[in-house]
Amino acid sequence: MNPADTLTPDLLLSQIRQTARNLAASPLPDAHRVLAALPQTRSLWWGMTSVERRTVLLLISWAAQSVRVAYDGTAESLFADALTFTARTWAATHPTLGPAEFCETKHEAGFLAHLLASGPDLETSHQLSLAMTALVPVDL
């Protein structure tokens, strides 16, 4: 059974927020980079389909939409800013809709997430997914 078959957007968001809490509680300054280097997280990301990776990127964007990403010259910050800006804008114009609809609707973030999730450089999308997860606001 494919894990995505049983994971709803709400369940995935819950797991994203728990990962964000764990990253925030870590004593390591760049805990998301350490997590990204682990073989288990790498094999999990590469083992997903491009549709699953796209959904995860969009849900992380949804969870981190309240964060204003400071561009620091890296691809991570550029992509994170584009994804969170689109999530923020979409949520403002669709206040009655939620993360599941955000993942299913055609918009700029969906296109960018699709390119990142199915492109030849999965390392970038993998790093981005964890860097953005580290931005998700949490209550510790």
Describe the structure.
It is a single chain. 71% of the residues lie in helices and 0% in strands. With 140 residues, the protein is mostly helical. Helix 6 (75-93) packs antiparallel against helix 8 (108-118).
The major β-sheet equals: none
Helix content: over 70%
Q: Tell me the radius of gyration.
A: 14 Å
Strand content: under 5%
What class, by secondary structure content?
Answer: mainly alpha
Could you report the average pLDDT, rounded to the nearest whole number?
90
Number of helices: 9
CA-CA gap between termini: 34 Å
Overall morphology: globular
Low-confidence stretches: none
Number of E strands: 0
Element-level helix/strand string: HHHHHHHHH
Structural topology:
Elements: H1 3-6, H2 9-25, H3 31-37, H4 39-47, H5 50-63, H6 75-93, H7 99-104, H8 108-118, H9 122-133
Helix pairs in contact: 2-5, 3-9, 5-6, 5-8, 5-9, 6-8, 6-9
List keywords for this structure.
single chain, 140 residues, mainly alpha, 9 helices, 0% strand
Condensed summary:
With 140 residues, the protein is mostly helical.
